[in-house]
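Homework help board

Subject: predicted structure for assignment chain

Our instructor gave us this sequence and asked us to write out the predicted structure in token form, then describe one feature. I got the tokens but I'm not sure how to describe them. Can anyone check?
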Amino acid sequence: MSDPMRVATLATSGHLRFVDRDRGVLTSRLHEESAWVDLRVWPPRLTPLADAWTRSAARGPDGRWAALVGWNAQRLLVEEPGGATVEVALPSKKVGFAAIGFVGDQLIAVPGPLADGNKSPSLRQAPAPCVARDQKLRPLALGADCASGDAWELCGVAPLSSGEALIVWGGRVMRLERDRLERALPFDLPRGHGNFGLSSAPVGDGFVCAAGHQLAHVRLGARAPSFPVAGLEDVVAVAPFGDEIVVTTVGPLRHHVVDPRTWATRALDTRAMGDVDFSVWRTSVGVVASSAAGDGLRRLT
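My token output:
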């Protein structure tokens, strides 16, 4: 397989949390294990990440990786391009965040639901999104009507093709203006699947995501989201796949490739995928990976 590689989608019913292009974070939520994954070599190289339960991870445009880890006590770890890891202090040890992401070179932490199935940590949700400054998370000011929306599970950062990114808090889509959040759209996203958080892919001047159990297309300037692929139901995850999008549905778990130029859909054929043994894991997880040139697929198990 050629280098670099790109992971196309999440798999295994939400137990796998995050992997992305070249390098990412792989976590088995069933056993609270996490690792940095280096996809520039095959088989991938894994480096344990403090055996921590990873809730969210993100990569900045400057090459930094960030991971939000921990169950009853969260830590925000940032791996610099040179390999050094620094910790960003949270506002309080008693609050937690659901997702992190980069808006430009600024690392943002977004509150959201902290429970996992029937289990809940001892933390309470942070009262507002925060930005990392001087190795500390600092609350962002909220503009008019910028409280969390009702789609409580949809929290995170949605990158755009322009290089910008929007912040989604409870399904409410906002834009960061200096140290203040302002409404970017006049509508909120509909509720999604309670066991899956926000995942998105940039399309045109907006993004697509899983919302309302469908593939939702969110455009800047629109008055409501559109749902361009009627045949996909129970959508739970979305990920970029070159010029296309991989959409994951449940009941049963399936992956679909969608062309955003025409919204044509085809099934993702995984029968020919090779296997890689991640013996560090005590449970089986799966990811669909592809090369940047799109010359093949493999399953990481």
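Reply (TA_rk): Your tokens look well-formed. For the description, you could write something like this. The mean pLDDT is 78. That's the kind of observation they're looking for.
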